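Dock nicotinamide-adenine-dinucleotide; give full complex structure.
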Amino acid sequence: MIKKILKDQKEYFCTGATLDVSLRKKSLKQLLSVIKKRETEIAEAIAKDFKKPLFESFITESGIIEDEIKFMLKRIGKLAKIKSAKTPVFHFKSASYIVPEPYGNVLIISPWNYPFQLALSPLIGAVAAGNCAVIKPSELSPNTSAIIAEIIAESFAPGHVCVINGGREVSEALLDEKFDYIFYTGGESVGKIVMRKASENLTPVTLELGGKSPCIVDKTADIDLSAKRIVWGKFLNAGQTCVAPDYILVDECVSAELKERMVHYINKFYGNEPRYSSDYARIINERHTARLVGLMKDCSIYFGGDYDEKEKYISPTIIDSPSWESPVMNEEIFGPLLPVINYSDLDAVLDIIRNRPKPLALYLFSKNRKTERKIMMTVSFGSGAVNDTIINAGSAYIPFGGVGSSGMGSYHGVKSFETFTHYKGVIKKSNAVDVNLRYPPYTDKKLKMLKKILG
Ligand code: NAD
């Protein structure tokens, strides 16, 4: 089946249909209208997968996709245009231009944690840039994967975009095929498999991976507001957000106050018994629940720590001062556990961050502009925010992506178009003039003149 679908998509791409910008626009408009029409069903499917609150689904799944499509529709005409470029004087007499060319047939592999958004967001860039695409959503969020397949079938010709659902074997079989671009979102270990397989065909890749994203709170920060924004960004989606603050580094002078205010906001947002709150999601499956329960073991729990493995429930939990060597500080948490580590010397903790794998995100809560500048200029991370959490993943105006072990390549907004585009440079030479300087026989006189021209 995979081979047949790919053959059809390759044939469809070769017809040149997707080079027509109006077709790209028409398909994106159709996608937008189908998503709008089925907004409630999408949220219900995600809720079936892990009790994600409907409100959260709207703001972080369908809403964000609708916004991205509208953003792209406004710019696609300009982005797809051939652009003229300058030409060096030694190529006299020529004109240059750049052709934004679609790669061709692309593969998008997505994870379960924002199951709708992470399958569709790269697709917007792929379609806008004129590619055909196969999407392989996650098998761990089957209800969402099923509705994604229906929505795509309702919006695109199968030769243009189609969904192939299935687990690891399907993903592996797809990676055995030759695509022109692979866009993968998920964990680091599978990211390595994807890159290895892609290298066999020299297929370019974007890898959107995870990691441990630090959140620094210094003593100049507005502690109450910081606590509120950290609690929101950490416990949204029950902490299963690639850019969630993984752990907090707080100046010891304000640590007690920050923890007290975080507890206040956890209670305010989710009540005294978060398990009964309709605003609090569940862990995706029993394996991940058991993993998180294991991470809590031997930790000093400051707040929370309740769980029900059968229910896949873990309460919002604050962990006090774990050691840097403890398990919870050595793997991406990807759940509602929030370690808090105090510091007395900011430079020392910045060195620790620099010596660990490069994080996907970094958050700083501070009113000190010098501290902000120092951290933003000297610590490497994918993207970040000052005085807030996770909003860096929700803007079409800045690129989003990892660096080092948190990934390679980026997307969102214009960057999504660029990611799925090969920029083909062309120089067109005039036949009216032919400067003899470059042709043999080479002479000292020619060399002198060349040096003069080149300055
Ligand atoms: P997952 O288990 O759903 O896997 C992701 C995809 O890889 C799925 O479609 C799955 O079928 C496929 N897959 C699994 N094993 C495979 C194999 N051996 N070969 C080929 N394909 C295979 O998701 P996950 O990996 O648990 O996702 C969570 C991770 O993703 C976290 O580390 C998180 O930080 C990261 N993430 C990153 C971003 C980002 O934008 N950078 C976004 C969301 C999640």
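Observed: The radius of gyration is 25 Å.
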